[in-house]
Amino acid sequence: xxxxxxxxxxxxxxxxxxxxxxxxxxxxxxxxxxxxxxxxxxxxxxxxxxxxxxxxxxxxxxxxxxxxxxxxxxxxxxxxxxxxxxxxxxxxxxxxxxxxxxxxxxxxxxxxxxxxxxxxxxxxxxxxxxxxxxxxxxxxxxxxxxxxxxxxxxxxxxxxxxxxxxxxxxxxxxxxxxxxxxxxxxxxxxxxxxxxxxxxxxxxxxxxxxxxxxxxxxxxxxxxxxxxxxxxxxxxxxxxxxxxxxxxxxxxxxxxxxxxxxxxxxxxxxxxxxxxxxxxxxxxxxxxxxxxxxxxxxxxxxxxxxxxxxxxxxxxxxxxxxx
Length: 323
Description:
Elements: H1 2-9, E1 26-30, H2 32-37, E2 41-46, E3 49-54, H3 56-62, H4 64-79, H5 87-102, H6 117-122, E4 129-140, E5 143-154, E6 160-167, H7 176-185, H8 188-205, E7 207-215, E8 226-229, E9 232-235, H9 236-247, E10 254-258, E11 262-270, E12 273-275, E13 281-283, H10 286-298, E14 306-310, E15 315-320
């Protein structure tokens, strides 16, 4: 299996875009399609809406093939000095964390810590790039044929970075690893080329996120409320637009929706790294990027309460008027 992974990504070692920059973190996971096909799905309640997510823990515990493949690719990425996050180790960390949380109580009242289903789901690793692995063994008479799909996904924008499907030749006696290797070899070059294009764009133009803003009906202001801004009268939406011009990388963003009570910005390009509250350099996600905007709106002359709701790495919702 390690031979399969080495064959797939060996040429990425020569990639120069990482020479002077921090590498994005990567996690290898079973694809959604594979989890659905094999019944590894978990339901959770998100504010009254039942949603489904992949049950990676059950998949890794009950399917030896996907566990071997995920681990092998993760090992290779780590050997090439990529900041890899191990899916299996992260699942163990979360499981241990749940045990620890279950025994923590308040000193005075004995109160327990609270966590809803949605919060439990989002308390997980946050890789920059997710490598979705999928494979399927088909029988053609006495022979077997393997189809193999590897898709790299930007965890911020959910856009596909690179994705290809390969099909191995039919065989009655070849090991599963050999069939998988044949499938991967059929798309290796195209997959790596897609990754390299993404890395170039990432370091030149920043990450891509979405920012959604909406007013509670109790909010004292909306996006059409006018304020004095540098000696001019401007609507709040225009002032927020100036904030995006000044804080996005190269001023790159799109105002996708605008009304009295709603603003939505997509294709928002943000720096890869910034300063934390302690002054340390840290990777920036959508929540960290929007925090200064929320702080601005809390101060004069706007003086509005802002509730922030992270929706994964690449999307943040801001609600004006209440927590």
